[in-house]
Amino acid sequence: MRERFTLDNEQIGELQSILSEDPEIRECLVLNTCNRLEIYGIASSKNGFEGNIRQKLCSSQGIDRSLFDQHSFWHTNLDVLQHALEVSAGLDSQMVGETEILGQMKEAYAAAKAAKSTGTVLNRLFEKSFQAAKSARTKTGITRGQVSIGNVAVDLASRIFGKLNKSRVLLLGSGEVGEKTAQALKSRGVRDIAVSSRTFENAHRLAHELNGSAIDFEDFLSQLHNYDVVIGSTAAPGSLLSKDAIRHAMRARPDRPLFLIDLALPRDIDPAVEELDNVYLYNLDDLSNIANENLAARKAEIEHARQILKGHAWNLWLQLRRRNLISHQE
Amino acid sequence: MLSELVMTDRTAFAIGAGIYAVAFLLGLGMLMLRKTYLRAVMFTLLTGGFLFQTLGLNLRGAEIKACPLGNSFEIAQFISWSIMMLFFVVGPAFRLRLLGFFTVGLAALLSGVSLLVPGWDQPYPAGIFGGNPWIELHAALAIFSYGVFAILALVSIMFLMQQHGLKKKQFGGVYQYLPSVQQLDLMAKRLLLTGVIVLTAALVFGAVFWINNLELVPIFKLTATCIVWFGYLIVVILRIQKKLVTRRHALASIILFALAIASLWPVESAREHHHTPAETNVPPPTDL
């Protein structure tokens, strides 16, 4: 259902124009992300307004109205304010507390403001929602801990190396999770990334995407000691890195830690390497467990954050009412 | 000017130790509540405790007209003061989170215990250093090096904790505030070199006195100090050769510090036996 409402920037602009041209709509803003399509608006009257909007959307996207009604929601008054604040704080996101949504809301707001679709009420709502999101994030743990595999790996690398600007990364294989993990490390400024895969073309392509280098699969063992982080993400049927291979590599770097990330199934790295001093091995299950624990911890903070946002929403509601900027049932 | 103060040296030491204890308990409470403490509050407490302890050392020094290193109480206070001073130098430079918490805990323990054991603050003959600046410098540097080794032991404990957390896949709690293992290892290496250089300098300055006063060379004390120095020197050499690194280096640093501290007591008791009323006018041996 969600895919049916995927809009590109041009379509969003068109939808925004259609809504703005409606004399019943005083202000409107379309928020479109990978996880939601929301329309915020102020109407002059409420008679039949909801039905009109729903019908317009269904017609433009060619969707059955009853199916749409089943999967959509409609808020009014204070509930709209509360919802907008919760969305901006990431409480409504799949990854609770994620901050990307705030940037997306800021972009949507800037676009609507530039198109002169917003007015006093929506301007105030969105500006307040950004402040409230910051407040909820500061006062609660909804953003604490990483919830994606890549970012958990980056966190672990930071606990081992501190700053990552001198760390070198070797990616074995061209698996998707491995690639994302390498990208997350790259975004934190690792010194360089090398890719090694049985198919050299794949390694070369991925190395190009990561702005790194490709090395022959036959050579990676002899160069292992040069790397601080090794990500195993191949489809090899057995272990690629044995305890002896790692022990041999560590002889050349006894005082520098080695971080091994095994994202492959079956495993690329022999679990016995954990016994070696200064070697830290994490597999996909370990990283997933950490991400899930962090996500659970964030979810436990939702109610606390919601209470904080309720206060902000109520204050904003009173302000708008006091200044007669909004009437009940709008 | 110091003599005009109403406060006695022990009162100043007690206030300093009290502030350290409050800072430590504040840090501990915040850690248990999984909250971060305000750095400004912690820094103010550490600075306040340090200033009172400095005042205490000054008052004691003015009273005995020498560096206050004449008994176990003074040595404990001086080590405690040294590690706090080192924290102010090392902590901000390396942004070592939690080091302040560990340091202030050790400082509070050393300072508090020395205040609570009356036997440690026994009077000793006036002019214990015999007005010899070399031996006074030797004593101060030697005790300061022990402060460096104390911080090294703390950093090593933090390293072992972080390594344990990473190996056992532990998150949250105290682990999230610890610096990275690589950063702690680098810090330990630098502290080890600093401590050995300072202790070597202390022995060289002491030797200036011993060469001219061979009959006063305290064999037992000299042996104990040289063993400690030699132990750290071996660790430095093995570290440079990369034969003693990370975990084993951390363990060696902790064990050596425990031995160094343990050696202070026999050294002290040997000195007490060595002093007799007839010797009060003779510059006595003051090696650790």
Low-confidence stretches of chain B: 275-288
Can you count the beta strands of chain B?
Answer: 0
Tell me about the biggest sheet of chain A? 6 strands, parallel
- Following the backbone from N to C, one meets helices and strands of chain A in this order, namely HEEHHHHHHEHEHEEHEEHH
Strand proportion of chain B: under 5%
Low-confidence stretches of chain A: none
**Largest interface: chains, residues each:** A-B, 21 and 20 residues
Strand content of chain A: 5-15%
Can you write the helix and strand succession of chain B as a string? HHHHHHHH
Instruction: Specify the number of helices of chain B.
Output: 8
Radius of gyration of chain A: 25 Å
Q: N-to-C terminal Cα separation of chain A, in Å?
A: 28 Å
- Helix/strand structural class of chain B: mainly alpha
Largest sheet of chain B: none
Shape of chain B: flat
End-to-end span of chain B in angstroms? 31 Å
| Arrangement of strands in the largest sheet of chain A | 5-4-3-6-7-8
Give the helix tally of chain A. 12
Q: Can you walk through the features of this model?
A:
The complex is a heterodimer of chains A (330) and B (288). Helix content of chain A is 49%, strand content 13%. The mean pLDDT of chain A is 89. The radius of gyration of chain A is 25 Å and the shape is elongated. In chain A, helix 4 crosses helix 12 (302-322) and helix 5 runs antiparallel to helix 6. Chain A has helices spanning 9-21, 49-61, 65-71, 78-88, 100-114, 120-139, 149-161, 176-187, 200-209, 243-251, 284-300, 302-322; strands at 25-33, 36-43, 168-172, 192-196, 213-214, 229-232, 258-262, 279-283. Chain A is of the alpha/beta class. Chain A starts with 8 loop residues before the first helix and ends in an 8-residue tail after the last helix. The longest helix of chain A has 21 residues, at 302-322. A six-stranded parallel sheet of chain A has the order 5-4-3-6-7-8. Chain B has 288 residues and is mostly helical. Helices cover 73% and strands 0% of the residues of chain B. Chain B is built from eight helices and no strands. In chain B, helix 1 packs antiparallel against helix 2 and helix 5 packs antiparallel against helix 8. The longest helix of chain B has 35 residues, at 133-167. Chain B is flat and about 60 Å long. The chains are: A alpha/beta (330), B mainly alpha (288). The A-B interface holds A 145, 156, 158-162, 254-257, 274, 277-278, 280, 282, 286, 289-290, 293-294 and B 162, 165-167, 169, 171-172, 175, 178-183, 185, 242, 245-248.
